[in-house]
Design goal:
Elements: E1 4-10, H1 17-26, E2 34-40, H2 46-53, E3 58-60, H3 75-94, E4 97-102, H4 105-118, E5 121-126, H5 133-142, E6 145-148, E7 166-168, H6 181-189, E8 200-205, H7 214-227, E9 233-238, H8 245-255, E10 262-264, H9 271-276, E11 280-283, H10 292-299, E12 304-307, H11 312-315, E13 323-325, H12 330-341, H13 344-361, H14 364-379, E14 383-384, E15 387-388, H15 390-394
Parallel strand pairs: 1-2, 1-4, 2-3, 4-5, 5-6, 6-7, 8-9, 8-11, 9-10, 11-12, 12-13
Antiparallel strand pairs: 14-15
Length: 398
């Protein structure tokens, strides 16, 4: 029996956590039951490089309107999206697509309606706010199944809600990731002017956007300097800056006298390797549905200090696998970091517990099994022409 084709369309060129999570899923799909079709808006760029580097073949899909990350869709763009719907639906029908698995808002805006018009199943993978307009107003109509990365991100039940079709499935991670922490530390310190063996490094990792609170990180690092003025504690910021956030970060750092203690290193890959070179990861984000870097740090032995907000409280058990502090409190973040930096034994115990916990909960195989169960549920009995996928989905003939 032929495997069912699952289409993974991607919009844009920049790599985010959704692309890395999708990669972790795709490489664990059972090839006898599911055949992935990775569809890119652009043939070149970081997304194409990500999949090519993993040995996965991709195609450039039909032309679709450009959508900017974090920007609302205006009337003109909405009209172009609507106009492209019949053409995209025809493409899906011609390729015999059973499921379209969308991993972010821009992709859903582009492909959700064509999926329904083509008669395929729409798998809505939600990694954002539970109050997102698409999840609240569009998913109840168009989504055949919703997967959210945390309980926090799931829609509220109600008469008009996708809650009954929602499953909570944490993001996947390569739990076998291992790095030489000493070598990684040397690589980080080499980028910090004047750093030496006594330097301690606290990382911020992720896109520099308001929700992730990069400015709060600057304030917390300034508080840490006040609390431990005689110690060389540096902050490193790993990630792409959007809009004017980098300028705002630099301006606040200068205002707080932190120019010599904060280092913007930009997007670095593999991200987990750079986290392995740091002493701590600080996660000041508010209402973050599920932070990938938080779990990546746990897996490479870097303890985490995070705000008790959003999905952070689902990923971390306070005082066991990391530390949780009140949101929007730079002094509390600083004090928690200083406490761990001053107690190597406690830091090591938390790191060991966190690594084991993350490896048990967030493996790629576990994630893929959960997703494939949802695929099978969606596709049982679905027909394309005279062909049914029921046999392939159940694993018959393997």
């Amino acid at each position: 029996m032929m495997p069912a084709t699952v289409c993974f369309p991607f919009v844009g060129k920049l790599v985010g956590g959704s692309h890395i999570s999708a990669l972790g899923l795709i490489r664990k799909l059972d090839p006898q039951r599911f055949r992935p079709l990775i569809l890119l808006q652009h043939g070149e760029g970081a997304i194409a490089d990500l999949f090519a580097g993993a040995g996965l073949s991709c195609e450039v899909g039909p032309s679709t309107p450009p959508l900017e990350h974090g920007r609302p869709i205006g009337p003109a763009t909405a009209f172009r999206l609507l106009s492209s719907t019949p053409r995209l639906a025809r493409f899906l029908r011609q390729r015999g697509i059973g499921i379209v698995h969308c991993n972010d808002g821009r992709t859903l805006a582009t492909w959700a309606l064509p999926t329904k018009l083509a008669g395929a199943r729409l798998f809505w993978h939600h990694r954002g706010s539970p109050n997102a307009a698409g999840l609240r107003f569009v998913a109840p109509v168009l989504a055949d199944r919703v997967a959210t990365v945390s309980r926090f991100a799931a829609p509220e039940p109600g008469w008009y809600s996708a809650a009954s079709r929602t499953r909570i499935i944490p993001s996947p991670f390569d739990t076998q990731t291992r790095y030489d922490r000493d070598a990684a530390r040397r690589a980080v310190l080499a980028l910090l002017p004047g750093a030496g063996p006594e330097t301690r490094v606290v990382a911020f990792s992720g896109a520099l956007i308001d929700r992730k609170r990069p400015l709060l990180f600057v304030r917390a690092m300034a508080a840490l300097r006040r609390q431990a003025p005689d110690r060389d504690i540096r902050g490193v910021m790993l990630g792409e800056a959007l809009d004017d956030m980098l300028e705002r970060v630099h301006a606040l750092a200068a205002e707080r006298g932190m120019d010599d203690r904060l280092h913007f290193l930009g997007f670095r890959t593999p991200g987990a390797q750079w986290l392995a070179g740091c002493d701590l990861l600080m996660v000041p984000a508010i209402d973050e549905p599920f932070g990938r870097t938080l779990v990546e740090a746990m897996l490479v032995g870097t303890p985490v200090v995070a705000t008790a907000s959003g999905g952070n409280v689902e990923a971390i058990r306070d005082e066991a696998t990391g530390l949780l502090v009140p949101p929007e409190d730079p002094e509390a973040l600083a004090a928690a970091c200083l406490g761990l930096l001053s107690d190597p034994a406690r830091r090591a115990a938390i790191a060991d517990t966190a690594r084991a916990d993350a490896a048990e909960r967030f493996g790629e195989a576990k994630h893929a099994d959960a997703i494939m169960a949802q695929y099978s549920d969606l596709l049982t009995g679905l027909r394309t022409g005279d062909r049914t996928w029921a046999g392939a989905l159940s694993g018959e003939g393997r």
